[in-house]
Amino acid sequence: MSESEFAVVGGGVVGLSIAYGLLCKGKSVSIFDENDNALRASRGNFGLVWVQGKGAKLPEYAKWTRQSARAWKLFAEDLTQESGIDLHLQQRGGYSIYLSEQSLTTRAERLYKLKDHLGGDYPFEVLDHNALKKEEPQIGPKVAGAILHHEDGHVNSLLFLRTLAQVVRIKKARMITGSPVTSIEPVAESQSVPGGFCVQTSGGEMHHAQKVVLCAGLGSRTLGKSLGFSVPIRAQRGQVLVTEKMPSFINRPSDEIRQVDEGGIQIGASAEEVGPDDRETLDITARLAKNAIDQYPALAQASLVRSWAALRIMSPDGFPIYQHSQQSPGAFFVTCHSGITLAAAHASLLTDWLSSDNPDTYSDFRFPSFNFAEFNFKAFSEDRFDA
């Protein structure tokens, strides 16, 4: 039976970011990843490193997101140094664009309240149509204005996923792919066995680890319940369109439209409560295309080259879940729908907690490099759903 200090179950962006951070701390790590017919959120994401609006109902999430966004530059530089791959990270700000004055005003009011909760430290501007036109000359006449948040940005998401997978191998992670994990069983400590967990796959692989981090997206539901987690997650479908490569004409990304480094325009993103159904639909494709043309009329002449649908992993309130099992100490459940944005925090701050001798001290846990003096990590535990 093979052994490691940590078994990371899930080989998407969340699992690979955590594995990378643990490897950087000198831990031995085994990564278990399902086969290619799995419902993979990581291959369908929009590629944003996004702060704007996150945490409007939970300031702790705003702090966590901002900390991760601030850490992204060094995170990307480290990955590029290890791999030689440029991730094309840009963090020059990003927009939420609105076609009506009322929706722009409503959004601005919410962000001003969040800014107050954060003590005034939340760098955004409200741009009317003329101000936005100076920043984005190709914006259309139907646009009322936008919120520009200066901490937002984007990255080449497929290169990022590929780079993570490459770098964890460089750092000697053991990769077990192609066979889903079928069980994770606590191992009773004895003179010959140091406790921990036995991880078994459908291919017959048996592996022993001192700790297990379950971040397998929708696949966490069955495995998590056996370890004592409630796993309150659901699938939410999002659809995305991509155009042909075009000359550069969008200076900053928005939460609906961005021009990637290769030149294509990525258009999204719907939020559909349809369960585990990742099929594309013509009505959503049409709606996304119309909205994009309303914002940037030049897109009316662009050819679509591909589209896809993928499933977000959503908690009841939309915020991440970081939970240590009381039933099976040493087992952790990690899930979020912003795996790209939070990757830098997962690779650094979260691995401090996973490596801790006292992971149950949520309220008292202090991350050594965290920039915000007041921060209650317990806000992200499953306990909040019991209230």
Q: What do you see in this structure?
A:
With 387 residues, this protein is α+β, with helices and mostly antiparallel strands. The chain has 9 helices and 17 strands. It has helices at residues 13-24, 59-83, 101-117, 129-135, 157-170, 220-226, 282-295, 343-347, 349-354, and strands at residues 2-9, 29-33, 48-49, 94-98, 124-128, 145-149, 153-154, 174-177, 181-186, 197-201, 206-214, 234-245, 257-259, 264-267, 304-314, 321-324, 331-335. Strands 1, 2, 8, 9, 10, 11, 16 and 17 form an 8-stranded mixed β-sheet that branches. The longest helix is centred in the N-terminal third of the chain and has 25 residues, at 59-83.
Low-confidence stretches: none
- The amount of helix comes to 25-40%
Return Rg in Å: 21 Å
Describe the sheet with the most strands. 8 strands, mixed
Mean pLDDT: 93
Assembly state of the chains shown: single chain
- Kindly identify the CATH topology of the largest domain: FAD/NAD(P)-binding domain
DSSP E strands, number? 17
Number of domains: 3
Q: What string, H for helix and E for strand, traces the elements in order?
A: EHEEHEHEHEEHEEEEHEEEHEEEHH
The H-level CATH homologous superfamily of the largest domain, spelled out, is: FAD/NAD(P)-binding domain
By CATH reckoning, the class of the largest domain would read Alpha Beta
**Proportion of β residues?**
15-25%
Specify the overall morphology. Answer: globular
